[in-house]
Design brief:
about 525 residues, Rossmann fold, five-stranded parallel β-sheet, 18 helices
Length: about 525
């Protein structure tokens, strides 16, 4: 068994102490300040799970700036949109991503390159020559090594500006407000209650999900900041996770249901081969978890499974433990202390227990937000100070929330939010396509996967393979529908609007769920 040193991070064969990482972040902050990065500015981070991700995020925080994690799966035009929208003052990226990142960086904005580590290269099959920064670029290491550390200011919330899309398909940066000491205290209480991490409850954890995603970002940054032992898994692998749990006596994990599914699919002899008795707190969210999957995980790992419900905008609003999951199958929990959850009908009336409507929620004391550059958008998703995620459900007589469906078109595949409108806009730019509809259909492993129904131009109808190839040139691979159907005509309302419900429903018959 490996020696476990708290306040430490490891990735593959590399390791660094928390204090050394924090010092490097301080030096980076000084260097960034020399480039006029200051309070309220944005530092874009296009990195996989690596030490530099923490350094850049902590450096931005020390300056009062926002770290802006960018999904590294994105194509150049997708990355460029985020960099322009957040007015990035600096960009940090892995060397192997330069082909997509470099063309996206606005003129005059410095791009600092991080060598792609060997464990990440091995996990993704990246050629060695792509892992080394070219000789003519700025290097993150030079920024870190050339300046003395900038002193830390008064503690605030570790906040990143996460980009999340709406039904328009245009990503919006969720910009947290009022990030002072009181917000930090409330945030710490929420982390203790939901992630199980606190100064007196230091975590030994594996970061299983991508740090560009909202929940893993908050979880990972806080776990290391609190002096935990953090293992970075370059890419999720079910058996390798079991090996890491045993090897490092892992106590805490943050996961998504897709990971549970992959773990449960391992052969019984593999599952029984690892000692998982160190686990104390395994929390999951980001997507609906099938009842049978939750039950099987509790039977295997014991009553250490917890679940939350929330979003980038709202933070975590509801929560429940393993006992509650078994007693209330399918629930996503009850409102946390200080939290409010209500269900409204379409006329804005608050519905009583067991009646289905749109879910609105908020956590008292959680820092409020705006959408960067779109302050008025906060009102569009709000009602009585609460915010909706577009989900439909009900509260039972004991206050437990159950989600029945999604009012909006967003698809959650493997815990990742995907917005059909963005894909539809790309499809409509393809010659030979008259109209289209993209929506989610059930998938045993990922929860949902994408399906596109396309109404082609009779003059030049494209083949499904041509459609997929067209999208791959413009969008991240995970946004390319796995199922592409050509139809002579799509069902429409009298107004001409496509009725997605009629396309979607046949796929969900017999699935036992609607999301």
């Amino acid at each position: 068994m490996a020696e476990i040193v708290l306040g430490h991070a490891i990735s593959g064969d590399r390791e660094i102490s928390r204090d050394a990482l924090i010092e490097r972040a301080g030096s980076a902050a000084t260097g960034l300040s020399e480039l006029d990065v200051g309070a309220g500015d944005a530092v874009a981070v296009v990195l996989r799970n690596d030490f530099a991700f923490f350094e850049a995020s902590f450096a931005a925080q020390r300056l009062g700036a926002y770290s802006v994690p960018v999904n590294w799966h994105g194509k150049s035009q997708e990355i460029a949109y985020v960099l322009r929208d957040c007015s990035a003052k600096a960009v940090v990226a892995h060397a192997d991503l330069l082909s997509e990142v470099a063309p996206a960086v606005p003129p005059g904005v410095p791009l600092f390159v991080v060598p792609t580590p060997p464990e990440i290269a091995a996990a993704y099959g990246i050629a060695d020559e792509l892992c080394r920064p070219p000789p003519d670029v700025l290097q993150w290491e030079d920024l870190v090594s050339c300046f003395p550390p900038l002193p830390e200011a008064e503690a605030g919330v570790i906040s990143s500006m996460i980009y999340t899309s709406g039904t328009t398909g245009n990503p919006k940066g969720v910009r947290r407000l009022n990030l002072g000491p009181e917000a930090a205290r409330l945030f710490a209480e929420g982390v203790r209650d939901t992630f199980g991490i606190a100064p007196d409850r230091v975590a030994r954890t594996v970061i299983t999900g991508p740090l560009y995603h909202s929940a893993p970002n908050a979880y990972g940054l806080y776990a290391l900041r609190m002096g935990g032992f953090v293992v970075l898994q370059p890419r999720f692998d079910a058996e390798k996770l079991l090996r890491l749990i045993e090897q490092h006596r892992i106590t805490h994990l943050h996961m998504v249901p897709t990971m549970f599914v992959r773990l449960l699919r391992l052969p019984d002899e593999v599952k029984q081969n690892y000692d998982l008795s160190s686990l104390e707190w395994v929390v999951h969210g980001a997507a609906p978890c099938p009842i049978e999957v939750k039950r099987a995980m509790i039977e295997w790992w014991g009553p250490v499974i917890y679940e939350y419900y929330g979003a980038t905008e709202t933070g975590i609003a509801t929560f429940h433990n393993s006992d509650e999951a078994l007693r209330k199958p399918g629930t996503v929990g009850r409102a946390l202390p200080g939290g409010t959850v209500r269900v409204y009908d379409t006329d804005g009336r608050i519905l009583p227990a067991s009646e289905v409507g749109e879910i609105y929620l908020w956590q008292q004391g959680f820092p409020d937000f705006t959408y960067h550059g779109q302050d008025d958008k906060r009102r569009e998703v709000g009602r009585d100070g609460l915010v909706t995620l577009g989900d439909v459900g009900y509260l039972d007589e004991d206050g437990y929330l159950f989600i029945c469906d999604r009012a909006r078109d967003m698809v959650i595949s493997g815990g990742v939010n995907i917005y059909p409108a963005e894909i539809e806009m790309a499809l409509l730019a393809m010659p030979g396509i008259r109209d289209c509809a993209v929506f989610g259909i059930p998938d045993e492993e990922f929860g949902e996967t994408l399906c596109a129904h396309i109404e082609p131009d009779a003059a030049a109808p494209p083949a499904a393979a041509e459609v997929a190839a067209f999208l791959r040139e413009r969008l991240a691979d995970y946004k390319v529908p796995r199922v592409i159907e050509l139809a002579t005509a799509l069902p429409r309302e009298d107004s001409g609007k496509i009725i997605k419900r009629k396309l979607r429903e046949p796929y969900w018959v017999g699935a036992g769920r609607k999301i």
